[in-house]
Structures are given as C-alpha cells and as structure tokens.
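Lab notes, practical 5.
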Amino acid sequence: MREGKEKLGSEISSRATHSSNSRSESASSRHDGRVKAQTTIDATLHAAFEKSDRHFDYSSCIDFNVSPSTTSSVPTSAVSAYLQKMQRGSLVQSFGCLIAVDEKSLGVLAYSDNVHEMLELAPHSVPTMDMEQQERLSFGTDVRSLFKSSGAAALQKAANFPDVSLLNPLLVHSKTSGKPFYAILHRIDVGLVIDLEPVNPADTPVTAAGALKSYKLAAKSISKLQSLPSGNIPLLCDVLVREVSELTGYDRVMVYKFHEDEHGEVIAECHKPDLVPYLGLHYPATDIPQASRFLFMKNKVRMICNCLAPSVMVVQEGTLAQPLSLGGSTLRAPHGCHAQYMANMGSIASLVMPVTINKEDEEVKSDPLSGRRLWGLVVCHHTSPRFIPFPLRYACEFLVQVFGVQLKKEVELAAQTKEKQILQIQTLLCEMLVRESPVGIITQSPNVMDLVKCDGAALYYMDKFWLVGVTPTEEQISHIAQWLLDYHGSSSGLSTDSLMEAGYPCATELGDAVCGMASIRISSKDFIFWFRSHGAKEIKWGGAKHDPVDKDDGRKMHPRSSFKAFLEVVRWRSVPWEDMEMDAIHSLQLILRRSFQDDSVKNLKMAVKADDCKMIVRLPEDDEALENVVELQTVTREMVHLIETAAVPIFAVDASAHINGWNGKTAEITGLPSEQAIGLPLINVIADEAVDFVKKMLLLGLQGIEEKNVEMRFKMYGSQEKNDPVVFVVNACCTRDIDKNVIGICFVGHDVTAQKMILDKYTKLQGDYAGIMHNPCPLIPPVFMMNEHGVCVEWNDAMEKLSGLSREAAIGQMLVGELFAVERFGCRVKDHDTMTRLRIVLNRSIAGEGPEKFLFEFFDHENNCIEALLSANPRTDSKGMISGAVCFLRVASPELQFALQMQKFSEQAAVNSMKTLSYLKTQVKSPVSGLAITRHLMESSGLSSKQKLLLRTRSLCEEQLAKIVNDSDVSNIEESYLELDTVEFNLGEALDAVMSQIMTLSHERGVQVTHNSPCEVYSMYLIGDNLRLQQLLADFLSNAVHFTPIAEGSSILLTVLPRRERFGEKVQVVHLEFRITHPAPGIPQDLIQEMFHHSPGMSREGLGLYISRKLVRIMNGTVQYLRGEEASSFIVLIEFPLAP
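Output from the prediction step:
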C-alpha cells in the first residue's frame, strides 16, 4: 500500500513537471491559432465598415465570433490589405507633423502635409509661394537644414545611436520661426521617422537627457504601487487608475484585461461622477482588433487628441515600394472604425498604454517583443480634445512598466497558489484511491469537482453512471461517450468551451446548462466528464443599470451594445478551460489509468457491488522511523561540516548572547581561534564603536526580528591585534526550538573590509577616486558611474573583468540602453523587468533618495549569467551637488549563496506553517456546519426553558467559533479595517456564553471564576457585534485563569458596571466597564508589552492579547491593565447603543 502511494505521488510530481514545461508551448500554439482566426474576423468587420457608408450593422457583424468558420472563405489578400492599411495608412493626426529621412544621408523621404505650416517654412502673408516651399522642403532635402544647429547636431547623434528611443525626446528649434519642438524618433524599414510635437511655451522643455528627469513626475505614484501588500491584484489596479487619473487629468481611466479567449473586461475604473461606469463590462475580442494589439506592443503610449479632427496626409517619394510604416509613430491617425467607436461613446480624446508581462518559461530572445505578452491595457478617455506632452506621457509609460513588474509577481503568486491547491486536491484523491473505493473520487468529498471549477461532473464506468452537480441525463452522457468513441476515438480525451462548435450533434438539446465539457478516457470505453454551463451567467456588469428609457442602438459600436453582443455570443459558450486545469485533469487521468489496472480493476468491481469495501493501510514500522533518524543525523553532520569549511564567515550565539559557533573562515579573518571564541560574550569581540549597535541587534534578534545586510565591526587578535577592525556585512537568522521559541541567532557574513575602505576613502577624497578605480587589486569590487544625463563616466578594472567590456568601449555610452540593454549592444540584462528595476534604482539615486540595492542579473560578453547585488549611491561634486550615481556590484560566493538558500528554506518553512493553519481552519468549518444543523434540529424539538437557555448559550459559542474561523486575514484586524456586525443582542446571554467558554480551563487549574453584575445587565438589550465582544472577553478571561497561581481559594471575579447616557429623547447609549480581577502576580510583563506592541516573534498568548486589544479599539473602546500588590485587573471600556 505504501508503495502504491509513492508511485501515485511520483506520478503527480512528474506530471506537474512535464506540464510546466509543455504548458507554454501548448498555450502559445493555441494563442497563435486564435490570433490568426481573429485577424480574419477583424478584416471582415473592417471591410463591412468601409462599405457601410456609416450604416454599419455592428450586432450582425459581430456574430462572426460565434462561428469563425464562416470567415474561411475570406481571401488571404483581403487580410493582407487590411493589415497593410492598419499599419501603413498614410494618415497622421494634426497636433504634430511628421518627417521621414534616410538614416545615412538624413535626406527627406516623406513628410506630412502640415509640416510647412507648423515649421513656418514660408511667411503666412505669402500663401502662394509654392515654388519657394518646394525649394525649402522637398524630397532629398537634408532635414538638419530645417532646424537650428543644436537640433541638427542632436539629430545627427541620434542617427548613429543604436536605440534612438532612449534619446527621446530631442529638443529642436525651427530655423525659420525659432519655435521649439519635441522630436520623437524611431526606426522603420526605410530609415528614421521623426514625429514633431510643438512645445508649450509655458512648459519647461525637457531635453534628450531628461528621460531620467521625467521619471520624477511618476516617483510618488511608483512608490505607492511598490508599497502595496502582495496578493491583491484588484487593489493594485485600483491604485494605478487613480494615480494615472491624477497625473493626466482624463475624465475616465480604466484597466482593461484580456482573457484567454481574447475577449476583454474592465477590472478597474476611475471616472468623473457624471459619467456612466463601465466597471465589470466584458467586450468581444473584435472591439480591439489583433492588429491594434500588435501596434500597442510597438508603441508604448498611444494618444488620440481629437477623433473628430480631420487627419493629415503623408506625402512620400515615389521610389518607395510601399507606404510608410506608421506603427511606431506617436502621430498615427485612428482608422475610421475606431474613430466612430469613440464618437459613439462620447469620447473625443484617448490615451492607451499596453500592460505587458514576461511569458512563462520564455528565454529572452533577440526580438524584445517575443518574450512578452499583452496582459491588458490602461485606457484613458476624455469628453473633449486633450493633449498630453511627451515628458508626462513618458512618465506614465514608466509607471505602467513598474505596474507590469508588480503585476507579473502577483500573477505568478496567484498561479502558484492555484497550482498548489490543485496539487493538494490531487493528493487527497490519490489517498482516496489507495485507501477506499475508487468510486469515492466522485461520490465523496473532496471529489473531482474540487479539482477544477465546474458546474457538474460524471463517472461513466462499466455502463454505470455516477453524477454530481449540473450534468446531462444518463442517456445523454451515454450518447456523448459514444460520440467521443466514434469521432475522437484516437484521442485520450476532449476539452471544449462549446460542444456546439466542437460538432456534437445534440448540443442544442443540452441547453444553456451544459455548454463546455472536459473529458478523459480511463479505459477503452470508460470516461470521466466535467461540465460547465454557459459563460453569460458568469458575467456581471458592475456599473449602473440601464435606464429603461435609454435605448441603445445595437447597430452602432458602443460599450453597452458591445456588452450585450458579447453576452449573446457566449450564450452557447462556457468559460474556457485553463491550461493549468487541463494539466490537473490529465494528471488525474494518468493516475486513474494505473489505479484501474490489474488488482485495482478488481477492487473497483467489488466497490461497484459493495461500496463499503475498504482497503487496509499499513502503518510505518519502527525500523522505518529509525532509518529516518539515521538519515537525519547524516544530513546534520554534513551541514555542520559545510558550515565549518565555508569560505564566508559564519558564527552563532545562544539565548544569552554567548558565542556557540565560530567557523574556520571567521577565525581566519579575525585571528581568534574557535576554541577561544566559544563561550565568550559576543560583545567582547566587537569593536568599541560598534558595541551599542550590536547590543540592539542582539536584542531584536532574540525577539525574532532578523536584521539583513547590517555591518558588524570585529576586533583583531593574534598577530593582527594592532590592525583596524574587520567589517562584516551579515544577515541574522533566528534559531528556534520545536515550540518556535528563539534559542539563539546565526549570522552569515561577508567580509567587506576592502569595500568599506574604498567607500571611506571615496567619501574623504570628495571625488578623487581615479587611483582606486584603476587599481588592479582583486579586493576592489566592480564599480561603474554615470553622470546626471545617464552617460557612463567610469568603468573600473574589476568591472572590465566581470563584464568582458573594456573601459574605453564603456565610457561615453548611455548606461541604460547601450551598456545595459535587453538587446545585444553591451551587457545584455535578463529581461525587461530587470531593466525597469535598474531605471528605478538609478532614478532614485540621482534624486538623492539615498543608497538603493537590488539583485541585478546580466550576461557578460561570453553569455555567462552574472548575479550580483547592485548598490547605487548618489554621486556628488565638490560643491555637494548631486552629479550622477556610483554603483557597486557585490558578487556572492557559492558558499554565501548556499547559506542564503538555507535561509530561504527557513522562511519557506514558516510559510508552510501558515498553510497548515489555513488547512486546519478549513477542516474546522465542516464540524461547525454539523453543529449548526444539530442545533436547528434541537430547537425544533420540545425543550424546557432551562434547556432552551443552555441551547442559546451553545448557539452563541458556535456562532463565535464560526466567525473566528472565517477571519481570512489577521492583518485587517491589525490595521483596524475589520467590518463589525450590527445586531440586537442580550448582554446577559453574551456574558453566559463567555463564562461557559472558560469553565473547562478553570476546573483544570482549580481556579474559581465568578460573575457579579447588577440585575439590569441580564435584561439589557444592546446594538452591536456581540460575537466580537464574546471573543475578546473570553480571551482576556482565559489569560487571567491561565496565569492565576494554583492555590486553594484562588478566584477570579468578572464584574460589569453599566452607565446610561441619553442623547435627545429617543437615543440612549450604555457605557460598560468590564473588570476582570485576578490574584497577583498577574499576567507576565512581556505579554502585556506584546498586547500593546506587535513584534514578529511574539508568543501565541501575546498575539491573542494583541488581537483582542485591536478588537476593542475597532469597537471604539479602550483596555487597560492595572497591576497591584495583591490583585491585578483587565479594565475594558466599551459603549453600545441601547436597543429601543
């Protein structure tokens, strides 16, 4: 039996590994297929709109979504023409002008019709000087001649720059008028495209080097995003839309998420009060065509200033083979269909920014877009024309990039959580297969419906049926099984979100109740089915209801019309099956195939005849336990040996701060042998100037607070006694016993004496660092510097050796974009997220926000991955002004990396403990539900008055337990965000429930608990949360009983003193004083401290007191603890309205 479990567990593990490797490939292929089919549909819709002459029937055209096969007749040439027009439409918006030039000669290849007017190439008073205009601007004209010398030089430099986007915007001035423009450049197949946007004279122009400066516009918003707690994607999106709204001033800002089947949903929104909300609306995939999505990936900020303004034609040289590609242009005009959509919804201006995240298991390729996927959009709408200058758009782009980094972490966390839940259900199902009848996977709890989200499931085995939830009839399931054998006999299963589209002939007979199905074959003719109902029932509009008078025109493109059309489309379609869900189903299929073979088949046949047939489980024998202990001892010895021989200093102290560990490297560096160090107080070996700091660090460590990356200075001994102290940068890791009490601290360090010497010398010399930078000493860490414009001004010898890039090649290059880039220019960074973090760190350093550190990964010239801790510090000139940033790389040794890995394992163990607690809470809910049912049955039977009173007390205790179990997040209580219930309750009944909860403990300890209160208390009805009142009073009372000395005559007194106060004629408030008096010495002082001050390593009792105090505070009350010579007391003051 044990071997069977191990095989099944191994099967799950291997299947999970295989699934993680193949999931991205299968998802990618399905995505590519959907994109291809959807593009054909988009082309068909666009053609219908172009021919409609503004009488476009949107509702009928969108039916292409229901049956994509209807577009199979669309010729490839029509799709190509559609894509050509989307990207090469030859039209730009009128708020700027465009010039395209040859990259080598800078000669003009194309320009927009309004370039003469905007650059004032001819006087306004001479409107007929066409010949002069042609002489000033014609094909082949050197574009540098149109601008003043500074702008011409900037354009020349940009033409030779590998990634011109890093220089945007260039500030140029028209040679004719002197007016300033932002020149925004990007490369296309035939040369460079220059988008020119006028600069508002009231604004301070931002130069090309001002990219870092524009980040400051979004610094506050970025800090808010990064300070949010993890595990809450809706909160992250809500904060983003509010911050973008404040930055840009648009009337409506939304986060629009793309689902797996390409349709979209508004998941966050910030809008003006007078606008109709779109929150919760879903839209068909055709509302944002695939071609537009591709262009969003190329152009990170898409602005439309006025959809009603006429577009401007782009004129180009006749020798060009095809129209210019405008996909990356900031001026690209909206195509007619989109402009009509905006007009229908009352939006004149818009700003759209793509939200991209890394694909799963995707290595960085030469094409930066290949490793990214479009998760969604940040969409801004305005009801009047609106222009946002480029620096502010750049800041918003950076903000959305940071959002993408945070979002990727949240998406991965959510996926891991779901995968672990599925794995847990699989494990439980495996145990059920081994211990009991295999039929139990559908007849018992948990069952196959808990494996994936579905509305029903069915087992069809040996011509018998087991159904659960919403399913077809047995006859219909038999027909589906036969259809699978006839038409999909070569496959092991089938999954579809629409049985109708999958070709099942009787799909309409199933109705809306069964639309999607996933099936697996567990033997030649036997199946397990999962069923899903139509997707429309899952879709809810979170905005305002339709006004009955407001009639939407279904023929027009409008958000509400699109929403209605989408609901109609998904009426015969279910929510799609996710890759992770199908992996879980296929894993179960492999497990069941093993289980249903040989003896397992016989067991199943017996189970069909007699469901009470059970299998015997063998318990582990003593020899197995002994074998595990021996193995554990071996591992322990290896760990001790590894720590002793580690190449980094590792030392430890016990609970009294005496040294009980001192490895060889620590002894070597300090000169103090381990046999002499063991038993000494740690303070004795610390340098005098650092003693106070280390004392505080030890105090925090023994309280469970683990300090990271802190400096400790040690005295030198032996032949090195006269030397300066040695400096370690250490991480503290608390050592705990089986009860999780801190019994010592382990320190893993890194000798940074050499680096410290460099930093001290750098500070003293005020920038005179040349001698240190170029010193070939191996103790000098890799260092590079940049000026305030982002240009590299230093690249020391150690950095040359680490990166393989010479100092001569590095100096003068842009640090971000040339030296460090996603593409292969200098040192290739791991991914876009790493590049975004690097920009944040450098920006904060230049802003003077102090030292910044993060784990930096890049590839050297031999394509070896380098992992290092990057420390960025502000760089100042002789006047103390910030002139750039200096960056140090600290490359960890393998030993230090191993020690840090062990620390992560410890942290993971703590996370596992929290999961165990969550599991136990889940298990408690079922018995609580059973108690509730029993109580209801007892209430319906004839009971005496005394029995009813006891049942009422039990009911209150039961409700209190259910409320505590349902507390999903203790942090809500800590931050006083808990929402209280408001019910009418009898104070006397609540007090009886409190007293009943501590009776068992009081009897065990021999402590008498009495309750003495005025008679009016028992007849007093109040309004408030009685269950939270019971919870906190029971906790205070149980702590009083627990810490009362066991002696004859020991007693505790609970008294309640009410005081009424009247407000007006009808409102009365009762001020209640609850006093719990117990004998000295009372509650230990450290627990009282924990009650008022939270700490990570607090005890279980301290945490309970802390939460109870927080509950009192949430109820607008106070709690005190008075300690006397003979007795101590909890005093809780709370007020409740008196029930009328």
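Observations recorded by the TA: The mean pLDDT is 78. The longest helix spans residues 2-52.
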